[in-house]
Amino acid sequence: MAVTIGVACEHAAGERRVALTPETAKKLVAAGARVRVEQGLGRFARFTDQAYVEAGAEVVQGDALVDADVVLCVQPPPATSIAAMKAGTVLVGALQPQADEARGAAIREAGVVAFPLERLPRTTRAQAMDILSSQAGMAGYKAVLIAAQLAPRFFPMLTTAAGTIRPTKVLIVGAGVAGLQAVATARRLGAQVECFDVRPETREQIESLGGRFLDLGVSAAGEGGYARQLTDEERALQQQRLAEHLKGIDVIVCTAAVPGRPAPKIISAAMVAGMKPGSVVVDLAAETGGNCELTERGQTIETGNGVVVAGPVDLASQGALHASEMFARNLYNFVSLLLRDGTLAFDWDDELLAKTVWPERATG
After folding, report:
1. Quick check: is 226 catalytic?
2. Rounded Cα–Cα distance for residues 210 and 191 (Å)
3. Class of domain 151-313
4. Model pLDDT, residue 350
5. Do 333 and 92 touch, CB atoms closer than 8 A?
């Protein structure tokens, strides 16, 4: 019997993305699966019910997850929905099972085979399934647009009859996927862009996008391409030099994040106090505590010295159409590892399955 893939509407506040697009629905149907989606699934991402029907999916009113063998989601379903799934149901998405005790318990007790894709090994083969990277790209893009909107200035240099206007000086903190997208976007808007990262090996990537690597004279280069922990003296020197540099910066976009842990605090309140009035800080890491000490999750505030600090959330959802296309392709590529002639087949020797599944399987 063909595997049934069910996708329900997302219920998390502010979530506009979908885990299945008409494009990926068509591919799954072609692979022999039966695809069932809840009516109105793609309305916020601008995918119509008719588009899903034309792709070969069944659009249903009410619960699309009843008797589903595979459930796809962006954010995890409520614990009550997970508890109602039949034993052996495969659940794939950004699940964070250890972040919510009730959700984790529901997965275990229902016998659900969960694949939280944030646990996916970061290997070359896994890149096509990497939801963290695909969604970070949209977040980095949107963060710069927010900064441009909040800044009381042009980003590019302009020569006008009223005189020449210098370009905005933008500093991107963190050269991961979001940071590099932010560098590229700020450059496209014509800003003068620098990027700061504790890993000196990111210099080449930053410069390839037209940015300048900000070298504070303190290297955190470690073994195997990973950053090492700075000593107290090195960190103090780095903070001192960064604070001095920020006095000449117009816009900061913070993107530094560590999966599964609070965001590192990089921009102190004292640094913000030393910035010019009219400066802007957009903290993409607001959802995990923020890189800036003054960041308030989901809020935009103005400090006493006239610096605006924004802590936007759900940035990827603000570009729901393209973010959904990327997310859904990530899920399709992963689910393809589980399908054989339209039925489920688990190859637990495949590290992408074995290292992503939760609860973890016993080895030996």
Report:
1. yes
2. 10
3. alpha beta
4. 96
5. no
| Residue among 39, 43, 98, 122 flagged as catalytic | 122
Q: Under CATH, what is the fold of the domain 4-129+319-354?
A: Rossmann fold (3.40.50)
pLDDT score of 159:
95
Task: Check residue 290 and give left, alpha or beta (phi > 0: left; psi -120 to 50: alpha).
Answer: left
What residue segments make up the domains of the chain, in order of their start?
Answer: 4-129+319-354, 151-313
Catalytic residue among 226, 229, 261, 349: 226
pLDDT at 81: 94
Closest among 186, 182, 193 to 139, alpha carbons compared: 182
Structure tokens that stand for 4 in this block: 């049934």
Q: How far apart (Å, rounded) are the C-alpha atoms in residues 9 and 40?
A: 7
Residue 220 is predicted with a pLDDT of 65
Active-site annotation holder among 52, 103, 119, 133: 133
The two domains 4-129+319-354 and 151-313 share their CATH topology (first three levels equal): yes
> In which residue ranges of the chain is pLDDT below 70?
220-229, 363-364
Identify the residue whose tokens are 């990497």.
130
Query: Percent helix, strand, coil in the chain (nearest 5)?
Result: 35, 20, 45
Decide if 122 is catalytic: yes
pLDDT of residue 199: 84
Whether 127 sits among the annotated catalytic residues: the reply is: yes
